[in-house]
Amino acid sequence: MESFEGGKDPNRGGDGPLRITRSRADHPFYETFLRAGEAYGLAVARDYNSADIEGLHITQATIADGRRQSTAVAYLHPAARRPNLTVLTGWRADRVELEGGRATGVALRRGATKAVLRAGREVILSAGAIGTPHLMQLSGIGAADRLRAAGVTVSHCLPGVGENLQDHFVASLTFRAQGSRSIASDLALWNRPRIGLEWLLTRKGLGATSFFEVGAFFRGGPDVSYANLQHEFLPFLADFQAGRVRIDHGYQYFLSQMRPKSRGWLRLRSADPDAHPRSSSTTSTIPPTPRRCWKGSPGPATSPARRRGRRSVGWRSRRDPTCARRRRRSPGCARSAIPSTTRSAPAEWGMTLWP
Q1: How far apart are CA 114 and CA 200, in angstroms?
Q2: What is the CATH number for 279?
Q3: What is d(CA 332, CA 354) in angstroms, rounded to the nearest whole number?
């Protein structure tokens, strides 16, 4: 399946089409993140995709020669010229055609043009955790009462479709930094032509990275038997609003739990294929996992790297970004709200990353 630059071992491939590389992690913020984790007492995970994941790591990425190695690049493009393969792009799958309880084809649409593809053997759905159950319910496969309520004719009653949705709660903790120590200056508008030119000529530089180049898996408390929390580090501040990214000086890391206990669902709003489905990531019957995340997030300064300085600290939940602005536990934020604190920033900078 994969070709890892570190070589083949019993748990991973070394000669597959999907190329995996290690990030460079050569910015001072990356280095300080790793040193702060070591000062806190974390070990270094040699290969978190093969052996024990617990500890600090330089990330691995599906990037090779400056390009994202998607499944399309690795598998589809090399096979695109096969005579027994036809690739259609720009088409929308509206429903699966069923006859006698068997999937026989797929109804497609592109603009005002409609078509039905008939299957010679089978229909395989590969639209992800959201798209696949959505398409199945549009096809009349799911809980009968909910399908009828959405205006869909029931073809096959299968109540489990759209249930048991599992999502990782992620809190984004942001820290401001003074001066131009973060990568924010390099990503300024006037510098982007240079980034693009460097990538075109060399396939290297800031145009060839995901920026998430270091991280860690660790335990949220002494009573936990496995690494249940993850840090994903970013060496600048990125605020995503209305499809745009606002970049500022600082750094942030995303704190997420590895094995969410909450379960949710995905259901139809209507029989219209263009209507986004309704979804919920949590249920009220299971204790909220964000509390575990907060136990593992920054506390009193203990590591030397933390004692060198403080930053203005904020947080954002990926589930409800408005909670961060309200900074209070309103009914809509009860599950995802995490207290926010603000500290002044001295001239000397340091990483505030570990409990």
Answers
A1: 39
A2: 3.30.560.10
A3: 29
Residues 6+ apart with CB under 8 A from 89: none
Can you say whether the dihedral through the CA atoms of 68, 70, 74, 76 is positive or negative?
negative
pLDDT in tens, 39-54: 989 999 989 999 889 9
pLDDT tens column, 130-186: 999 999 999 999 999 999 999 999 999 999 999 999 887 788 888 887 666 788 888
Check whether residue 67 and residue 45 sit in a common domain.
no
Kindly state whether residues 258 and 234 are assigned to the same domain: yes
In 3D space, the residue among 114, 171, 131 whose CA is nearest the CA of residue 321 turns out to be: 171
Closest alpha carbon to 314 in 175, 188, 192: 175
Evaluate whether 148 touches 120 at the Cβ level (below 8 Å): no
Domain range for 132 is: 88-161
Q: Are residues 45 and 176 both part of a single domain?
A: yes
In this structure, the answer to whether residues 324 and 263 fall within a common structural domain is: yes
Phi-psi region of 179 (alpha: psi -120 to 50; beta: other; left: phi over 0): left
